[in-house]
């Protein structure tokens, strides 16, 4: 329904793809309270006042036409959304029905495997997701994807949904956020009659694939956990696929009931980490390409170097420049980029280069753990990265040899000197070592 409304705004007002993608498509229904429909503007950078001025009326009209209800519309930002308290809780949701076969309607059309950039941070989660998409109910059940905000969990989840429906339009795929799930449980309990509960169970227990996003929010809500547990068991016994996302692994969800925790751990848990520099660049390039946005690589580099822990913010920065470009019809220069992004990126605060950071980056580069790095092991797969870390700590920080030795597992002076000398010599004589070191340096300090 919501997509239908947004499409209607697009068509009736002849919006171009960029305008639509920049302003309209990101909008979400946050809640309906009485006669007020709250629309979430997912990022402050999108310009809430502009949207309000320009799209308030078109949205109101389209909502009226599609739902037949004259809602008051209110735009809100994520932080306001969190503090919103509703007077009236048993409010109608935008009509949610049992999923029709082959129904993509509550999946974001842009979240597909094709638009997902695979990097070291998400390779495992990506292949696990693809396996589940190819063989729902058979590969891993449940699939549990976890990681910090804005790292691509929802994107992967929707990709699985699209893939399954495209392969087999007869599959019933149901995607809900855990708020939606919770609200529906509460609503059906509140209604107090068995038909409300039957309806709820019909909806959830007859699907082939159930996806619940941000499952951490069902925690601490007892009745919801209970209902979830039964839904989960029913579906799993029938070999139906369950996919969950969360911001943390089950073992870190303190108030999660033990029996549910153990169910989660039956399947496969896949985490998504923060993207490295190459992945961030690849995501920006891909997005610029999709949006037909002709933007210089050094500007993408500027964004990728300064925003590292959240892909939503990374995209937000690019979107902001795209919006500027479309409004001003001007090529984006570095000056413009720095000015437009000044509230997102504060370049006077570059990340501090510490020996600890170097050790972590080097370990990551060689796919070994920090524990291995600082262990006593002398095998060459570990010893060489360790010597490279010594060299980089010496050349990139002002730490003394003693400090470096301490951080690298309590090694003495002469070991550190020996390591540094060896790598220095290698660096001078050997092209491949030089390239390797420069690559790692770039990861440590992208600027
Ligand atoms: P999460 O659910 O983990 O908070 P999302 O899935 O909503 O994060 O991702 C945030 C934004 O970043 C989305 O617009 C998504 O398309 C984009 N994104 C995340 N990971 C990738 C990726 N690997 N390739 C392309 N886009 C990505
Ligand atoms: Mg998400």
What are the SSEs and their pairings?
Elements lengths: L1 H11 L4 H8 L3 E6 L2 E5 L7 H20 L4 E5 L1 H6 L39 H12 L8 E5 L5 H15 L5 E5 H14 L2 H12 L3 E5 L8 H16 L3 E6 L11 H9 L1 E5 L4 H14 L6 H10 L4 H18 L5 H7 L14 H11 L4 H5 L5 H17 L4 H7 L5 H17 L1 H14 L3
Can you tag this structure with a few keywords?
447 residues; alpha/beta; five-stranded parallel β-sheet; 20 helices; binds adenosine-5'-diphosphate; binds magnesium ion
Q: Could you list the spans in which at least 5 consecutive residues all have pLDDT below 50?
A: 87-95
| Molecular shape | globular
| Structure ligands | adenosine-5'-diphosphate, magnesium ion
Helix content: 40-55%
What fraction strand?
A: 5-15%
Distance between the termini: 45 Å
Radius of gyration: 25 Å
Average pLDDT over all residues: 88
Number of helices: 20
How many extended strands? 8
Question: Class by helix and strand content?
Answer: alpha/beta
InterPro entries: AAA+_ATPase (IPR003593), Chromosome_initiator_DnaA (IPR001957), Chromosome_initiator_DnaA-like (IPR020591), Chromosome_initiator_DnaA_CS (IPR018312), DnaA_C (IPR013159), DnaA_dom (IPR013317), DnaA_N_dom (IPR024633), DnaA_N_sf (IPR038454)
Organism: Agathobacter rectalis (strain ATCC 33656 / DSM 3377 / JCM 17463 / KCTC 5835 / VPI 0990)
Subcellular location: Cytoplasm
GO molecular function: ATP binding; DNA replication origin binding; lipid binding
